[in-house]
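2024-03-11 09:14:02 DEBUG pipeline.ingest accepted 1 chain
2024-03-11 09:14:02 DEBUG pipeline.ingest length=529
2024-03-11 09:14:03 DEBUG pipeline.predict start
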Amino acid sequence: MFNTNKSCKSRHRIFLLILSAYILYAILFICRTSFKVGGVRYYCLFDDAMISMTYARNLAHGHGLVWHPAGERVEGFTNLLWVIYMALFHLLPIAQSKISLFIQASGALFLALNCLIVKRIASLLSEDSMPVAAAAMALTAFYLPLNNWALQGMEVGALTLLISMTVLEILKNLKTGGRSPLPFLLLGLASLFRIDLFTPYVVVLLFLIISDPKNRRYNLITGLVILLISALSQTIFRLFYYGDWLPNTYYLKISGVPLLLRMERGLVVLALFIWKMNWVFFLIAFLPLILRKNKTLLLPSALIMTQMAYSVYVGGDSWDWWGGSNRFISIIMPLFFILFACGTRDLTEIITGGMGWKKSNTLFAVLILGALVNFNAISGPAALAEWLLIKKPLHVEDNREKVREALLLKQITRKDARIAVTWGGIPIYFSKRQGVDLLGKNDRIIARQKMRPISGIREFNPGHLKRDYAYSIGQLRPDVVAELGRAPEEAEPFLKQYYDRIALEGFSFYLLKGSQNITFIPQQGACAP
C-alpha cells in the first residue's frame, strides 16, 4: 500500500510539473507579444481577433454587432460567442492598451484546462499508462501553433477545450455503458464559436449511432434535436439581424472561388504540413488503430481526418506559409498527440521486446523528446526560436507597427473619418475610426465578387483573393487610404484623381482632397513626391 501511494504521488507530481511549466510558458509567451508605443505598453491580438474585438466593443457600447457604429450590418466575423465573450471585458474600465491581455489570459486558461482533459483521455485510451498521459500532455502544452492561435486571441483555445471535453465524455460513456446529452451540448456550444464546428458534430453523431447500439435511439434523437436547435437558432438570428444565410467571411472565401482550385491548394497545404512534421511521425499516430482492437480509437482518428478534410475543402488558411497546423487543424492536435503517444508506446514495446521496462521507457522518452522538437520546427530554426521565446511570436513586430499607424491616424483625422485598410483589425480598433475593408471581410459587395485571377497556386491566399479599387476607393472615397492590397497599380488612377500622398513618421498615406475629416496640415517636406 505504501509503494502504491508513493507511486501515485510521483505521478501527480509529474503532471503538476508539466501543468506548472505550461502556465509559466504561457505567461512568458503573452509577455513576448506585448510591446511599447509612445512609452505605453500595449497588448494586442492577432489582426483577425482584433476585428472581433471591434465588433465586441461596439456591442458593449450599445451599437450592436457591427464593425462601426451606425454602419451597415455585415457579419465580418465567424465567432459569435467569442465576440460576445470579448464584449464582457469591454464593459469593464480597462485601458484600451491592456484589454487584449485579458483575452490572451483566457486563451491560456482554456489551454491549461485542456491539458488536464488530455491527460484523462490519454489515460483512458492507454489503460492508465502514466508515460503516455504525460507525453500527450507535454506535446499538447508546448505545441507552438496551438499556443500561437490561442494566446494571440483567437477562439482556438476555447474550441480545443470543447472538443477534448466532448471526446472525454464519450469515452467515459462508452466505458460505463452510460449516455448523456453533454457531448452534443458541448459541440452545439462550439458551433456558436464557429459554425463550421457542425462538421465534427455530425461525425460524433454518426460515430455514436454506429458504435453504441445500446443507446442508438437516444443518441440519434438527442443529437438531431440539439443540432437542429443550434443550427436553426443561429440561422434565424443571422437572417433577422444581417439578412444573410451565412457569415460574410464564408461568402468571401467560398463563393466565386473555384472548388477544384480551392481543394488543390488545400491538398498542397495539408501535404506540406504532414511532410514537415515528418510523415513517419504522422503514421505512428495511427499505429494503435492497427495494433489495438479498440473501437474508441476511431473517434479521435475520425475527428482528426474530418478537420483535415475541412481544411482541404476551404483551401487551407491564410497563414499556412508559417508552418504547423492551421486554425482548423490546431483544435484537434491534442487528439493527434494522444494517438501519437499511444503509437509511440506501442512502437517502443515492439522494438525493445523483452529487454525490460527501463529500456522501453528510456526509448519512449527519447522518441517523445525528439518528436516535441520536430513538431515545433514548423519552419526550421526560426520556428524553434519562436517556440523557445527567443524570437517574438508571429506578427508581433507587425502588430506594433500597426498600432503606431492606428494612433497616428487617430491624430490626423476626426472621429467620423473613414479609413481604407487591408488589416481590418488593429488599425480600426486602436484608431477608433470607421473602416473601408479593401479585402471584403467586412464588405458585402466585395465578398460576393469572383476571385481575381492569380498566376498560380502560390498566389492563392484564402480571404485575400478579392478586391475592387474602383468601388472601394473610386466610389466610396474614404478619407484616408492607409493600406493597399495586391496590384496597387489598379488603384493608381483613383488615387491620382482624388487623393494627395504624404509620408509621415515612416508611413505612407493617401488623404482625400478637400476632406473635412482630416486635421493634418502637411508641413514642408511632409508630402511624398
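2024-03-11 09:14:41 DEBUG pipeline.report DSSP finds 24 helices and seven strands in the chain.
2024-03-11 09:14:41 DEBUG pipeline.predict end
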